[in-house]
């Protein structure tokens, strides 16, 4: 009888130990599952963050994007007599531009495509294509490497460009990078430049390059610039 009781006690102890081990295994499994879920959420969140940030940046009217005009640290408009209209050079021909960035000059026979409004540094083609766009009445927003390395400012540039993704001639706008390989730096304190190739609609012989340099991207500044310098005031306003 005593032996039977001892066996029962031993079996009870073994059973309790087995149950404790099972509970411990369940806790470990639950802990590992939770940890994996947290890691997965973090990975998904990090991947989605740039898209969420860009969507937030694009919300609102053009005038609300980026910083306000008063915060953009813009310099006075600069104008120079322009030349180079219809001066086409063979694709691949080196064309030096004295200004940073160019607002006029000789260019390749083909402009950059109408549909694309934003170029990252790795996506941009040679400058003479975009100078041809200027001849067609485009307003170009150039951003330097300081903006390219600033996530918030680059998101603002993309958001500004997205407001011109239509099919109308009024959507002649491109945002593109200016790098140290392209030429000299922007004036001190400037990291954004707006350019336009102006031609008097009543006398196309009267042409000017127009620049406005700013410290930060501003939709409010862009809105005023494209209003003051519409595509119609250019050497070839009806060309795409």
Strand content: 5-15%
Return the domain count.
Answer: 2
- Rg over alpha carbons: 30 Å
Class per helix and strand makeup: alpha+beta
Helix-residue proportion: 25-40%
SSE series: HEHEHHEEEH
> In whole angstroms, how far apart are the ends?
104 Å
Count every helix, treating DSSP H or I runs of 4 or more residues as helices: 5
What's the overall average pLDDT, rounded? 89
- Order of strands in the sheet with most strands: 1-5-4-2-3
The tally of beta strands, per DSSP, is: 5
Main β sheet profile: 5 strands, mixed
Shape: elongated
Folded structure, characterized:
The protein is an alpha+beta fold. The chain has two domains: 1-59; 64-228, no CATH class. It is built from five helices and five strands, in the order αβαβααβββα. Helix 1 packs across helix 4 (151-162). The longest helix is centred in the first third of the chain and has 57 residues, at 2-58. It starts with a helix and ends in a 12-residue tail after the last helix. The model is unreliable at 48-56 (pLDDT under 50).
């Amino acid at each position: 009888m005593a032996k039977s009781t001892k066996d029962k006690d031993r079996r009870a102890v073994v059973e309790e130990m087995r149950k404790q081990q099972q509970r411990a295994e369940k806790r470990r499994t639950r802990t590992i599952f939770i940890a994996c879920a947290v890691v997965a959420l973090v990975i998904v969140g990090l991947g989605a963050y740039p898209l969420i940030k860009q969507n937030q940046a694009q919300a609102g009217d053009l005038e609300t994007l980026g910083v306000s005009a008063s915060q953009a640290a813009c310099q006075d408009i600069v104008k120079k007599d322009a030349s180079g209209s219809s001066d086409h050079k063979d694709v691949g021909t080196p064309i030096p531009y004295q200004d940073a960035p160019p607002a006029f000059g000789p260019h390749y026979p083909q402009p950059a495509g109408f549909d694309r409004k934003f170029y990252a540094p790795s996506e941009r083609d040679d400058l003479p294509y975009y100078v041809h766009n200027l001849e067609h009445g485009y307003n170009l927003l150039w951003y330097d490497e300081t903006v390219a390395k600033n996530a918030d400012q680059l998101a603002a540039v993309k958001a500004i460009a997205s407001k011109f993704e239509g099919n109308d001639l009024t959507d002649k706008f491109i945002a593109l990078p200016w790098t140290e390989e392209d030429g000299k730096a922007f004036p001190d304190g400037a990291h954004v430049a707006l350019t336009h190739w102006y031609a008097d609609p009543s006398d196309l012989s009267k042409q000017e390059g127009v620049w406005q340099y700013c410290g930060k991207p501003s939709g409010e500044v862009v809105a005023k610039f494209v209003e003051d310098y519409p595509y119609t005031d250019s050497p070839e306003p009806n060309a795409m």
